[in-house]
Amino acid sequence: MLRVENLDVFYGDAQALDGVSLDIAQGAIVAIVGANGAGKTSLIRTIAGMHKPARGAVRYRGKDIAGWPSHKVCDLGIGQVAEGRQVFPSLSVAENLMMGAMLPRARASRARNLERAYALFPVLTERRQQAAGTLSGGEQQMLAIGRCLMGEPELVMFDEPSLGLAPAVVQSVLKAVRDLNRDGLTCVLVEQNVAVSLKLASHAYVLENGRVTLTGSGAALLGDDRVRQAYLGL
User: Fold this and answer.
1) Residue 107, Cβ density class (10 Å: 0-12 exposed, 13-18 middle, ≥19 buried)
2) Which domains does the chain have, with CATH numbers?
3) Going by C-beta distance under 8 Å and a sequence separation of 6 or more, which residues neighbour residue 174?
4) pLDDT value of residue 232
5) pTM
6) How far is CA 24 from CA 4, 45, 167, in A?
7) What pLDDT shows up at residue 188?
8) What pLDDT, in 10s, does the model give residues 5-46?
9) What is the pLDDT of residues 21-32, one digit of tens each?
10) What's the CA gap between 209 and 133, in Å, rounded?
11) Is residue 142 within 8 Å of residue 165, measured between CB atoms?
12) In angstroms, how far is the first alpha carbon of the chain from the final one?
């Protein structure tokens, strides 16, 4: 569904990604793990059209979209739940959700997707007239996911969805990712909780210093001594 080929990304003279290649199969959950500064967010933002690579291709359903503007990438069906949630704090929950439905591909299915978001996160129904900035961190994360779903995506990239959340809320958010995948959504999961993300993922990649150093099934990497020592403290 999505293939990244030999991607190089720079910030000035600093190289963030060095020859990164990966494949995302339709219907999969693919985890991308690595330490802070490994290049995970740079990869997500490049796929999303927020950074232009110096070299390489980003092929979505066979079409190279590297360097496309982000609104066109979104309208192809690639959604992003950004790190830090990035809701519109002064807008209500309902208004934030409707912002996600402004893509041409999503306008006809606005009502159905709104119902889907509220069904996935019932607390958003209760808070729908409340300003998003007054929600808890967990509720804002649910809102960010719901807003992304309003854009009718076929593939969603989740960038650190559990960051800063209480353990019970983390479980709710990751359960939502699993449920969405079971409903047919392809998911890319960049997650600080390496053990949980590898348990969820059908396939995973380890990024170190902008390069892919390991790849395999989530279960295989979870049992790999290098991953266990570097990221799980075992």
Assistant:
1) exposed
2) 1-77+155-234 (3.40.50.300), 86-153 (no CATH)
3) 161, 162, 196, 200
4) 75
5) 0.91
6) 9, 16, 28
7) 96
8) 999 999 999 999 999 999 999 999 999 998 888 899 999 999
9) 999 999 999 999
10) 35
11) no
12) 34
Give the position of tokens 């800063």: 164
Q: Provide the pLDDT for residue 230.
A: 83
Residue 234: its pLDDT value, please? 55
Smallest Cα–Cα separation from 39: which of 72, 1, 76, 8? 8
Per-residue HEC secondary structure of the chain comes to CEEEEEEEEEECCEEEEEEEEEEECCCCEEEEECCCCCCHHHHHHHHCCCCCCCEEEEEECCEECCCCCHHHHHHHCEEEECCCCCCCCCCEHHHHHHHCCCCHHHHHHHHHHHHHHHHHCHHHHHCCCCEHHHCCHHHHHHHHHHHHHCCCCCEEEEECCCCCCCHHHHHHHHHHHHHHHHCCCEEEEECCCHHHHHHHCCEEEEEECCEEEEEECHHHHHCCHHHHHHHCCC
pLDDT beneath 70, residues of the chain: 233-234
45: alpha, beta or left? (left if phi > 0; alpha if psi -120 to 50): alpha
**Alpha carbons 55 and 140: distance in angstroms, whole number:** 35
Question: Would you say 91 and 143 are in contact if contact means Cβ atoms under 8 Å apart?
Answer: no
List 95's β-bridge partners, or say none.
none
Calpha distance 53→11 (Å, rounded): 10
Per-residue confidence (pLDDT) for residue 76, from 0 to 100 = 95
Instruction: Say how many CA atoms lie within 13 Å of 4 toward its Cβ.
Output: 24
